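A reminder from the course coordinator: this example appears on the midterm review sheet, so study it carefully.

Given structure:
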């Protein structure tokens, strides 16, 4: 398959090599154990912070590196996915959906206090938008924040929050105004704030190594200084943040496909049936060829959108398309990989079994496939 080097500079290879070594040293030997334990040590955040991985894409003044370098983030993200656990990558990377609004729109005192702690791995960041009543219908969220002097009183709940159990800081979407998208704001809410409680750890089909939780707010008093951006302007902040999240999910899907294809090719070359390797049978050769073709197309399209984002172009429609293409491709390739491995692919010790389970969330998170199609249609004037 292509190496897509036209998208990467020499320093991206250095980043890729560095993250690969980190994965080989700090994650790969333990990932199966952490999957079964449904969590990984908090210490891994500190190690990733010290290695400079968490800071990629963030301002140097706040402890980051390679600010605005989209393909630095691409290279690091792909190598992290090589650990084979989407849940671990999602948990370790929850800062990438919770922190950008802080970096861009929080008051300087909040930004300077919070961002460096998160990039070092000392503190953990989560994004809290989804509610049980709304799902992908962000404009209809019900958690309400009412101004009360120098504080907001917050009441409501959130669910399906990645890193919800262990996070220290939460970027929380609340309703400060009228119904609809124009009445939404973002608040930074810290663990330990009176009236804020973290619920049970939720059991999931996949992403076992990431903690996922419910959050509850009961007359939770949050300083007005913790408002992120202007009041009632949170929806625009959320939508801007979603573009990077959808790119990240497309990259995860493509790497899931890549690993599933590699496992399938290895099996096809080694496994014998009826006196020859199963990869010599035409039906399997053609299936593998189709898998490789689908992945090649998906990755090229995803990279093109990343390149446009790096150039400062708006890709609202295209990144939604890329997410759908990538997750559809991963749906097919992980399904085929389990089928090719047969009984072995159904066993928990098989990587493709985990890839198959972990993959299922990718067309749901960050806006469902159906929501992506609504966005695409709207951008087409429909």
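Designed residues:
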């Amino acid at each position: 398959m292509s190496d897509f080097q036209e998208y990467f500079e020499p320093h991206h290879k250095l980043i890729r090599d560095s993250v690969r070594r980190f994965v080989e040293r700090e994650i790969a030997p333990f990932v199966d154990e952490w999957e079964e334990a449904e969590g990984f040590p908090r210490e891994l955040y500190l190690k990733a912070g010290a290695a400079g991985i968490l800071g990629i894409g963030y301002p140097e003044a706040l402890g980051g590196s390679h600010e605005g370098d989209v393909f630095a983030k691409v290279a690091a993200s792909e190598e992290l996915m090589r650990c084979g656990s989407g849940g671990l990558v999602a948990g370790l990377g929850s800062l990438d959906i919770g922190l950008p609004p802080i970096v861009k729109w929080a008051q300087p005192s909040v930004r300077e206090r919070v961002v460096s702690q998160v990039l070092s791995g000392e503190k953990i960041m989560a994004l809290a938008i989804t509610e049980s009543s709304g799902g992908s219908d962000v404009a209809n969220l019900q958690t309400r924040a009412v101004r009360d002097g120098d504080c907001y009183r917050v009441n409501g709940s959130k669910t399906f929050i990645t890193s919800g159990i262990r996070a220290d800081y939460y970027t929380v979407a609340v309703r400060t105004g009228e119904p609809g998208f124009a009445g939404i704001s973002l608040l930074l809410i810290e663990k330990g704030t009176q009236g804020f409680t973290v619920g049970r750890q939720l059991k999931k089909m996949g992403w076992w190594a990431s903690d996922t939780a419910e959050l509850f707010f009961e007359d939770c008093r949050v300083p007005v200084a913790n408002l992120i951006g202007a009041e009632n302007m949170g929806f625009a902040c959320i939508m801007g943040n979603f573009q990077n999240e959808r790119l990240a999910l497309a990259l995860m899907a493509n790497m899931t496909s890549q690993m599933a294809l590699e496992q399938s090719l290895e099996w096809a070359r080694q496994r014998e049936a009826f006196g020859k390797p199963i990869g010599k049978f035409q039906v399997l050769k053609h299936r593998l060829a189709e898998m490789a073709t689908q992945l090649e197309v998906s990755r090229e399209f995803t990279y093109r959108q990343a390149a446009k984002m790096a150039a400062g172009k708006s890709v609202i429609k295209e990144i939604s398309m890329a997410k759908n293409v990538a997750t559809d491709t991963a749906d097919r390739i992980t399904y085929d990989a389990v089928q090719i491995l047969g009984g072995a692919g159904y066993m928990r010790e098989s990587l493709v079994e985990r890839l198959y389970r972990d993959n299922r969330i990718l067309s749901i998170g960050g806006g469902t496939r159906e929501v992506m199609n609504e966005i695409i249609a709207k951008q087409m004037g429909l």
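The two ends are 37 Å apart (CA to CA). The mean pLDDT is 95.
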